[in-house]
Amino acid sequence: MPTFEVAFSRYIAGLMMHIAMINELKEGFGKMKFALNHFWRFDLVFLAFLVGFLQGIMVVGVTLLNYYVIIAKSHTVIDVAKDFLAMMIIADFDNIFFLEYPESNVLKSIVLQHNEYKVSFFKIQTTTSKDCIKSETNLQLNKLSSQPS
């Protein structure tokens, strides 16, 4: 049976890991939703969906591994803190890796630059119905109120 300090530190570390991983999980769900709702933008919709799915699987895996390490392998408060920090570094490795590249890197400049193509690509669209081509040209189909029969 762990002491109160160890149990409390495990609880806090687990809670902090969960809160930190929620944004990564939301990003994964957002990528999956975008791939499914905007299938015409991709040649291989499955691969676009797979990116978000694998990000979600990674989040769940890292979180479960963190809980296992904290609960089963950490017996002191220092061990809990050390293991928590190690797992957080592993979980944020992709973000840390992206930040390490200088601004002059070609791939990073493509991701960060703002141009008309990217603005149109990331434009929020409110419908995926095949009947609605554009909201400006087909206003009757986009109304939320019921239409008379």
What are the key terms here?
149 residues; 6 helices; elongated; mainly alpha; disordered C terminus; 66% helix
Model description:
The protein contains six helices and no strands. It is mainly α. The protein is elongated and about 60 Å long. The protein starts with a helix and ends in a 28-residue tail after the last helix. Helix content is 66%, strand content 0%.
Which descriptor suits the 3D outline? Answer: elongated
User: How many structural domains are formed by the residues?
Assistant: 1
Share in helix: 55-70%
- The number of helices is 6
Stretches where pLDDT falls below 50 for ≥5 residues? 141-147
Structural class comes to: mainly alpha
* Overall pLDDT level: 77
Summarize the structure.
The protein is mostly helical.
Task: Record the SSE blueprint.
Elements: H1 4-37, H2 45-73, H3 77-91, H4 93-100, H5 106-112, H6 116-121
Helix pairs in contact: 1-2, 1-3, 2-3
